[in-house]
Amino acid sequence: MLLKNVLLCLTVLHTAAMSSLASAADEDPMQWYGKLPDRTLMDLAPESDFVGDNEAWKELWNKWNPDEPVPEVDFKKSLVVVATVTGPNRMFGGERVDANGNLTFVAGSTRMAGPGFAYLMRRVSREGVKTVNGHPVPAVTESQGDAKESTDEDEQPAESITVKIVGTLETGLMAIGGETTGTTITANGITMELDLTKQKEPAKTATSLQGKRAIAVGSLRSVQGVERANRWVVTVTELRAAAQKQSK
Q1: What does the alpha-carbon distance between residue 167 and residue 212 come to, in Å, rounded to a whole number?
Q2: Cβ distance 109 to 89 under 8 Å?
Q3: Within a 13 Å sphere around the CA of 61, how many CA atoms are in the beta-carbon half?
Q4: Is 10 helix (H, G, I), strand (E, B) or coil?
Q5: Separation in Å, CA 45 to CA 22, 57, 64, 90
Q6: What is the pLDDT of residues 197-230, one digit of tens each?
Q7: Which of 39, 147, 20, 44 shows the shortest CA–CA distance to 95?
Q8: CATH numbers and ranges of domains, the chain
């Protein structure tokens, strides 16, 4: 959905918004945030403000994240709520469910003008939910469950690049428009951004390695930027301290 709610200033209202919108629908929600330079892709956001089946989920994800594998969502048990906002803004959101099963998903963002758009998607529990922002949630069918298992004969593996980098880690970085993951690793004069969303405690892990030699393993992808041409981002599956050279 185009952000229908009043845009909130992240630095002022984020804490208040999140405290009043506890994630009652899912105690451990999974969420995905991103920014794309092509604003026409924003029209692909569901008018119902949510995705409720595998087919629609795969189609939306592949349009917005063509280089990333589709996250697994069991739509018999879950829904994915979706919000968008114009410009390269940071987003945050939360949901609550009333006694009648009406789920309200509210999203806010920074207020930076510019090209492209940003999106926020959150997995929430489907149990007991009858509507999402006033849009009815259909009954669960077999086709809304787990995706059909594929075999080597009917599906070719997606192209990917797996890298192992030994270099110096820096974190807490900022860029205009938020166009950075906030963490980088530099080796042999080459700097790449690290996406730590798959780590259990990304902030803690990165902070503990600040300014130190580290080993990062993950998949490398090129991200088209808004303020910058291309960004090289590694989605990290393993991050640890590198063994220090011992002086003789």
Answers
A1: 8
A2: yes
A3: 20
A4: helix
A5: 24, 11, 10, 17
A6: 776 676 778 889 999 999 999 899 887 766 666 7
A7: 20
A8: 10-144 (no CATH), 162-241 (2.40.50)
How far, in Å, are 15, 41, 205 from residue 61 at the CA level? Answer: 29, 11, 28
Please check the confidence at residue 51 and state whether its pLDDT lies above 50: yes
Q: How far apart are CA 84 and CA 68, in angstroms?
A: 19
Going across the sheet that includes 102-109, the strands are 91-97, 102-109, 131-132, 135-136
What tokens does 106 get?
A: 């509210």
What CA dihedral angle connects 163, 167, 170 and 176, to 10 degrees? -50
Q: Read off the amino acid at residue 1.
A: M
Model pLDDT, residue 26: 36
Q: What is the pLDDT of residues 18-39, one digit of tens each?
A: 433 433 333 345 899 999 999 9
For residues 238 and 224, give the distance between their C-alpha atoms in angstroms, rounded to a whole number. 24
Residue 124 near residue 79 (C-beta atoms within 8 A): yes
pTM for the model: 0.52
The secondary element (H helix, E strand) that includes residue 20 is helix 10-20
Which residues lie closer than 8 Å to 79 by C-beta, 6 or more apart?
50, 51, 52, 103, 123, 124, 125, 126, 129, 132, 137
